[in-house]
Amino acid sequence: MDLIVSLVGLFWSFANSIWTFAVEYEEILTIVGGIILAYLCYSDKTSPLRIHYAAGILVGVLIVGPLWRRFVDLPWYADLAIILVVLIVGFIATARFAEKWFAEPHEISKDFLIWKPEFSDAMDALDAGDYEKVFSEFRKLADEGNPVALNNLGMLFEIGLGGHRSDSLAERCYRQAAKLGVADAQFNLAAILAADLMKDDTTITPSDDEKSQRFIEAYMWAYLAALKKNPAAEKAVGRLKKHMSKEQIRTAERMAALNLNTEWKHEV
């Protein structure tokens, strides 16, 4: 029992010291927190959830706290309790707002979709802003086995048109269309597989097998699309090459050759 009391007392003393330090240097901590938040917002490796929590901590601990103490003089533990309540309420409110925002339909340019005569109903719905009909039309055509519609459906999943956002379903649609020879789908799949891998500061190490395999597969699909004169894919091939060994490139090109022997040819 004495040990528990001692540990609680030690923790209480440590928490009090940390709080005293935070209060004394709150202006500096606020500036540092702002810089970190700005970095998180700028970095394309950062998820919206991380930004959400970083913003909540910055506002709750470093802004609400100092403002509260200007008007009310309470013990440090009461200050901490109030700020925790602010954080919890803030997280709930902003999470609901973020969920609603991400579910809203985002605008899409026709340039991102492949147009074919059989897509006229979907394109008319796009012009009219009827995103649910756009989605249903492309899904119907994709279910009927139209490979180009599969690519377009993947794009709708990727951008979340009409609230139907799913990276995994986008990748599945792109993969099915890519196997059927659709160049745009092959590039789109390569872009998803490469994701953060196609940045200039990315390198591959021999021990990183999973990343290496993703590079090889991404290169294979980009290479196949480049053979069909897809401009974006041609650039992607050049960028991927910078981060791959000669053996990895040869492996990817052998895989591409095998794929060329089996894929269905579709003019798109």
Q: Could you say what the CATH topology of the largest domain is called?
A: Serine Threonine Protein Phosphatase 5, Tetratricopeptide repeat
Cα(first) to Cα(last) distance is 76 Å
List the total number of helices: 12
Shape, per Cα inertia axes: elongated
**What share of residues is helical?**
over 70%
CATH class of the largest domain: Mainly Alpha
Give me the secondary-structure topology:
Elements: H1 2-24, H2 26-42, H3 48-71, H4 76-103, H5 120-128, H6 131-143, H7 147-159, H8 167-179, H9 183-194, H10 209-227, H11 231-241, H12 246-262
Explained architecture:
The protein has 268 residues and is mainly α. It has two domains: 102 residues, no CATH class; 153 residues, Serine Threonine Protein Phosphatase 5, Tetratricopeptide repeat, CATH 1.25.40.10. Helix content is 74%, strand content 0%. The protein is built from twelve helices and no strands.
Attribute tags:
single chain, 268 residues, mainly alpha, Serine Threonine Protein Phosphatase 5, Tetratricopeptide repeat, 0% strand, disordered C terminus
